[in-house]
Specification:
seven-stranded parallel beta sheet, globular, seven-stranded mixed beta sheet, binds magnesium ion, alpha/beta, binds adenosine-5'-diphosphate, 726 residues
């Protein structure tokens, strides 16, 4: 009834062939290997989990006359004419006919042998989508094969696998069959789990997905609602949850200094502040304070919309470390942001006698060596800077707390390095510092349940009083003159403005740029970026000419660190009235007197980015306005995206929409990194399974540790580290 046994036997019989090919011809084998690696296939078992993308129905023939655009079909006919045409370009055009009608097949790439085989009289079975063509219905590059008069039709659906250029379905299929025949498909879950959900056994699920049975309905297989798919999704989600649980356990089993002593410093800061903490800030601080008192490393995200006041909570936490005789470090992904923290911290901590040290990649060698010496000797109580703080040669005397602002802006590699260094920077053997992350980009619930399950979160869900919400305006670029008038008015009234240009800069690349040197090698600007940079410079020149009576500044990522810092300091001090900038000002920059922001080509920015940028205004008492300039015509998606930012000032709502529009890979910024994004499950669509997995994981670890271990080994081999991106 099922085709497992014969298929497996056939596969076994063939199984030695690929190995032989490998030894005989190493070059193609290694290129095969690299193609497979592109698909994420390294181990034998990866073939087993390389599941079809979709299924095609080749079990039936459709009369040619009934082949219409919109759905692929299979037809069969006899070649009645075949020719190589040269206009508009070289191509093979082949006319076939069945009892009902005529169809053209068109091949833009073909071999001579193909042209020969498709000679008049040949009988072909063709699979593809017919479209109306110049001469009649045609299929472009359909799949076809030459058949005999009575070649039987397949009895079941044909699986179609995700593949890559140069790796034909047939080859992939053969490799998968081999692997299936050789792999142990035993259970890694106790039987009651699949039974409870009405899911098949693992072996049966795998078999059902690779080998559809005659009569199987294509729909549930293709849209992944079939019970076999449900089983695979649960498997995958469970592996993710188990891995997160283990990270959590591992963390709880480690030691950190219990920063219990509440000394005079935190109290002194609170009394000296020109404002009172909001209720939400107090609550977040209480949660952090409790964690810091524990003898295990804290791993907590302080989340709050832009302007909610996370920095002061970070300062309190840093002081708590100092009060307990330990050091704290504050790191930001860009020089600009780190500088600003340094200024804020100096303002708050220096008067109460806390020794601060600045360290960044843009520093002179000598300054940096002096900073490193202070950090190592313990003169430094709080170090502030970029990720240069965690590079070779920087050792802390006794690090109690590491604070990372806008942590998700660091690249994945850097984040992993930060984690690793963070956990080895404690000094005393086996003692790790506490870790606190800050972010204004909220993590939607589904993501915090899945990717960030080993993360405690404190939320600042209210803005300090007296803020006037920013008014957002959408204005077409052709009305630029009106916008210029607004800028002039605002600046004449003593306020300041940002003019943001669409050069999206990867802030994670910025801090390391050496001072006084633009990078020309390695990751230097590509041509596109260079021309974009030129347009930023042009915009600055034009605006400076336009507003001859105003001081117009320019800041972008290619400036040397100290030039960037100087421009920002001038803007903060009011010496610059209009600041032309790229996205380098996106995170954290806090200049309360700036109340107007213009974003050019707003349609080119990400939603979270627009929200972050907009958060640079509305920080003072003046009514603030953010103008999104857009270029007509706007596509449908661009319009929808701008509408989200226009209608909402709630970072969570914007993030939710952003996640829906972009999907989790883009959202997390890990797509290119090869991090183990879920392959089968979709955290939004499969929320019920995600919730089930979250409940099952602790049960499995407690009652069936051996199953759990094997399950993780099967699904997470070599990937576990990457789950720690936060
Ligand atoms: P973010 O959460 O975006 O990092 P910041 O920490 O930069 O926000 O705070 C934004 C501004 O609000 C700063 O100027 C900060 O000093 C001020 N601020 C923070 N907390 C309060 C408060 N409770 N009341 C009034 N102003 C506050
Ligand atoms: Mg901030």
């Amino acid at each position: 009834m099922r085709k497992t046994a014969p298929a497996a036997a056939a596969a076994k019989a063939r199984s030695r062939r690929p190995a032989k090919a490998k030894s005989a011809a190493p070059a193609p084998a290694s290129s095969l290997k690299s193609k497979l690696a592109k698909l994420g296939i390294q181990r034998d078992f990866d073939f087993v989990l390389h599941l079809p993308l979709r299924y095609e129905d080749e079990t039936r023939l459709t009369p040619i006359a009934e082949a219409h655009a919109g759905a692929p079909v299979q037809v069969e006919g006899t070649v009645i004419a075949s020719e190589i045409a040269y206009r508009p370009r070289r191509q093979l055009v082949c006319k076939i006919e069945d009892a009902s009608g005529l169809l053209y097949m068109r091949f833009l790439h073909f071999y001579g042998s193909q042209a020969k085989a498709l000679a008049p009289g040949a009988r072909v079975r063709v699979f593809g989508e017919a479209r109306p063509g110049f001469f009649g219905a045609e299929m472009v590059h359909p799949r076809y094969r030459i058949v005999g008069e009575n070649t039987p039709l397949p009895r079941a659906l044909t699986p179609v696998y995700p593949t890559t250029a140069g790796l034909p379905q047939a080859t992939l299929r053969r490799l998968i069959e081999n692997a299936l025949a050789q792999s142990e498909l035993d259970e890694t879950l106790p039987a009651h789990i699949p039974a409870r959900f009405g899911m098949p056994a693992f072996r049966d699920a795998i078999d059902a997905l690779h080998h559809p049975r005659p009569g199987d309905d294509a729909r549930p297989l293709s849209d992944r609602t079939h019970p076999a798919w449900q089983r695979m999704k649960l498997e995958e989600l469970l592996a993710q949850q188990l891995s997160m649980r283990l990270h959590y356990r591992e963390r709880r089993s480690k030691s950190a200094p219990a920063l219990k002593q509440a000394g005079a410093l935190t109290a002194a800061l609170l009394t000296r502040l020109p404002f009172r903490l909001t209720r939400a800030q107090n609550r977040a601080w209480a949660e952090i304070e409790r964690d810091l008192g524990e003898p295990h490393p804290m791993h907590r995200l302080l989340q709050g919309d832009v302007g909610s006041g996370k920095t002061v909570v970070a300062a309190l936490a840093a002081l708590r470390a100092v009060e307990n005789g330990m050091q704290a470090v504050v790191m930001a992904p860009t020089e600009i942001l780190a500088e600003q923290h340094y200024r804020k911290f100096s303002e708050w901590l220096a008067p109460i006698g806390v020794e601060l040290t600045w360290l960044s990649g843009g520093q002179k060698k000598k300054e940096r060596a002096a900073a490193a010496a202070d950090i190592a000797s313990g003169v430094t109580r709080v170090a502030v800077g970029t990720h240069a703080l965690f590079q070779e040669g920087i050792a802390f005397q006794s690090l109690g707390l590491a604070i990372v602002d806008e942590q998700h802006r660091f690249g994945v590699e850097q984040r992993l390095a930060l984690r690793a260094k963070g956990s080895s920077a404690g000094g005393a053997a086996g003692i790790e510092p506490h870790q606190m992350m800050m972010s204004a980009t909220p993590i939607p619930r589904t993501l915090s349940m899945s990717y960030y399950a080993d993360l405690d979160v404190s939320l600042i869900d209210e803005l300090p009083p007296g803020r006037t919400p920013v008014t957002t305006k959408l204005i077409a670029a052709e009305r630029r003159d009106e916008v210029l008038a607004r800028v002039r008015d605002a600046c004449r009234e003593g306020r300041q403005a940002y003019w943001v240009c669409p050069l999206i800069e990867d802030s994670s690349l910025l801090p390391a740029a050496p001072a006084r040197k633009t990078r020309t090698r390695g990751r230097g600007p590509g041509r596109v970026e260079a021309s974009q940079l030129q347009s930023v410079i042009d915009t600055h020149a034009r605006l400076a000419a336009e507003f001859a009576d105003l001081k117009v500044g320019l800041v972008h990522g290619r400036l040397a660190a100290q030039d960037k810092a100087a421009v920002m300091a001038d803007f903060a001090a009011g010496r610059i009235q209009l600041l032309v900038a790229t996205t380098v000002i996106e995170v954290g920059v806090d200049v309360p007197n700036a109340s107007l922001m213009i974003i050019e080509h707003a349609e080119r920015f990400g939603l979270a980015q627009l929200h972050q940028l907009r958060g640079r205004v509305g920080r003072g008492v003046a009514d603030s306005v953010c103008i999104l300039l857009y270029q007509k015509p706007l596509g449908e998606l661009a319009r929808a995206r701008l509408k989200v930012v226009y209608e909402s000032t709630d970072g969570f709502e914007i993030a939710r929409q952003d996640l829906l529009l972009r999907g989790p890979g883009e959202y997390l910024g890990v797509r290119q990194s090869g991090a183990p994004l879920l392959r089968f499950a979709d955290i939004e669509r499969d929320l019920d399974l995600l919730e089930a997995a979250r409940d099952l994981a602790p049960q499995l670890l407690q009652h069936h540790p051996e199953f759990a271990r094997r399950h993780l080994a099967r699904w997470m081999a070599g990937k576990s580290e990457l789950m720690k991106v936060y």
